# Entry
Amino acid sequence: MTTAAFLLVLASASAHATWNLLLKRSAHKTAFFWAFSAISFAVFLVPAIVVTAIEGLTPAGIGFAAGSALLHGGYGLALSRSYEVGDLSASYPVARGMAVALIPVAAVAFLDETISPAAGAGIGLVVVGIYVIQVEAHTLGDLLRPVRALGTPASRVALLTGGFIAAYSIWDKAALDHLEPLMLVEFNHAGYVLIIAPLALRARAMPFRQEWAERRWAVVAAGVLAPLAYVLILTALTTNRVSYVGPAREIAIVLGAVLGVIVLREGLGPSRVVGAVLIVAGALTLGLAP
# Structure
């Protein structure tokens, strides 16, 4: 991975962890997600139209755009639900960790990418770190706590979220052969707006109105940070392997843990410190891998 791409990944991780924090703090997660996605769609609509007019849009590009919209819409629903039934410090690592495990395998299987030994070691460190960060090891039995937690609704939804992340990462990597990053991100947000709308704009409750009235600046901030984070990742993907970029962006887990401690007052045990160190080491290894 090039130095420029690695810096893009770090910037993306910062933006990603921040908008996830804002989503977690909202009262109606699905409505908040829809609201900031609608803002993102509106903000980037004109630039996306200009880029499309310049670059053109092929039938293949339309097909990839539609598939990406569906995958991202499903991801938005799953992520919102995961924060409704689970904690940020649990759901975020499980979802991102699931993606880390799946992306390299899928990239090798479907995109004919290869993984160097150094990159493989980096991916391994990230996966182990994500596991460790969830362990509160007071006894030997606690080491299996993350495995036992897989049966809970929060973990199941988080795993589903991770599956969507892996799926759209592989799909969007292929889509970049037919769409510019800005165009692709705009179609992603079209998927969020269309698929999540029935839940966010329910006739009786109208949770969107409450979120906008109470957290409009948080909605606006997330509306800028979410697409920015993904545009940075897509830009890095244009010249680098998805099997490297995908896992490297998981340094956001560490940033999310820090935000959780400072803003949400979550505890930071020894296992989380060790897990964070392992994730950083794995991300750095990926960043330096050829």
